[in-house]
Amino acid sequence: MAAPAGYNVLAEMPYKPALVEHGYTNKTLYVNVDSGAIDERPVTQQMKDVFVGGRGFGLWRLWNAVDGSTRWDDPENEIVISSGPVGGTTTYPGSGKSIVVSLSPLTDGVIDSNVGGYFGPYLKFAGWDAIELQGNAPENVIVFIDGVEGVVQLLTCPEEDLNTHVLSEKLMHTFAASDAPRDVAAISTVTTGSGADYTRWGCLNFSFFDMKRKGVRIKQAGRGGTGTVFRSKRIAALVVKSPAVNANSNNPAHPERLREAGARINKEILELDASQCDMRRVGTSHLVEIMDEYDLLPTHNYKFGKHPKAGEISSPVWRERFSHNMPDGCWLGCTMSCSHAVDDFLLRTGPYKGSRVIVDGPEYETAGGSANMGCFDPEFVLEMNFYCDTYGIDTIGYTTGMAFVMECFEAGILDKEKTGGLDLRFGNVDDALEALHQMGRGKGFGATIGQGIRRMKQLFAREFGGDPKFLQDIGMEAKGLEYSEYVTKESLAMQGGYGLALKGPQHDEAWLIFMDMVNNQIPTFEDKAEALHYFPMWRTWFGLVGHCKLPWNDIEPADNAETDEPAKVPAHVSNYCDVFSGVTGLDVEGADLILQSERVYNFQRVFGLRMGFGTREHDAIPYRSAGPVTEEEYESRAERYDGQLVEKVGIDPSGMTTAEKVATLRAYREDQYEQLIDAVYKRRGWTQEGIPTIEKLQELGIDFPEVVDVVRERL
User: Fold this and answer.
1) 257-482 adopts what CATH topology?
2) What is the DSSP letter of 425?
């Protein structure tokens, strides 16, 4: 098959696209971008039974590609992308998710990152349950999967500008059958940008063609530096061409059961969303004012939880800026339609200054991260959002990293001489943007910032005389991954949700703030441990099958509050059982879904052990996640903290200095966190060092010899 002009064929493999059978094609695609080897690999029944799909398939393929000595930039490391058996369903909202799995340049361990967009479903409908990419190419390459003609090609990339908004647009039109919108819409790409070449925060952008805007939209696999791995392999892009998609593309076993479940939730969304979270009009940005109201919106590097200027970047602002004359789903048929964008935004800085662009977002995390930097200018939020996306930089990594740098600047650890002239005080939007552009060029102090907080802490102590203990306390990373944008000081369960998350502090594993802090539904250590068992397992399941978690609890049945366990949204759990059974033909109950996740979750914990992590010491958190580090923080909430010393610690703070109060409260809170870890490990069937027991592996049916060997070496 001839490639487009200028795209030379390095290797190719013809294939017969497999028809999807009950959600699976039963084969995965392997491409070595160095040797040019292209192969198809079978999906065994054991893979489906144990690992289900999505994140599970990614972990299994990666496990078999690397060993404990493999580093993120070694050729042996892989990027694996998989959707899951339910992925690509058009009759149930939120079924367009994929999971990217790799070894992370931030954590040096296993990372999983979920993403919307069309690539994962299109890959499946082109004949593949997953793609695994291995090797480091000698030049920039493109992998093209043509599910219409039945060919996989490894191509040279003649394009010079690899930034996402340029490259994805070019590739969609280049590889489509014509420039007709429906032909272009049959294409999806995975790209990143120049920021992924120079930082460890590289993200991957999964594209889809917006039929009404007649333009390219993107969603991000943001966490853990998967885009950095992509560029270390010299991959410029993945391109997939899909055959036409319809409600039967997954060839579901029980289509009527699937349709009925979809009809139930679609009715809820259309009738109730506007009075609940209003996802169809403002998306996740509605959280800005809610977090501010409950003292949970991070400001000034998580020192505080609210700010008088928060309203300047809250949902009413974005409601006016988002375009509302069109549905905004990031997959076909998603009635949640929360993937909003700002059209015709005029860039005022950087290499594309003067261009008018589509800005995908902002999502809550991007707006919340801007608050964390003390930046409350909506124009800055959009400019930063766009450039992070097109440079391929995770907005959470960037904003949390910049907030850390800004506190170091204001604490005197950094100054303009050390930053190359950048005045990085909280709220300085101009120099914050300049640092971002430096990341995109790999120049200046921005390139240093882009190495991530863990490495900056070491550098600032070694080169600039920073106090290592203070840097550790305020550096909001765990396991090497930057925190997402929630203040957790008053929620012990959420501290555990972040610290115990397998990949690092990302809220997609467990978000327990309201259950714990606001509603006091889980008061004891045992209650918290149960929540930190169930919710991580439940949320893991979405990444196994190809679902987005938002339709689970960002829309609820009208009578949900009257159920026995409203936090679990039991009607929706029942829906998901119907969806999974409807697609795969396997009858399941809610407990079966938890068991599916528990197998994969424990396997990933052992994978971490294999890579040198996954024990108790690696579940530690920076103290700012647990309580006030500075006297300024304590005094900002003195009445609250004094009351806690009396009620929880049993100490009268009268006559104590603020420094003494800080130290006393800290000792109490750190002990509480250790007791929480004890309870969670016990509930999960792990040792007190956080290692799954042999008995637990046997119970879950993942006692493969090589898995057991890893555990035995550490018991």
Assistant:
1) 1.10.569
2) -
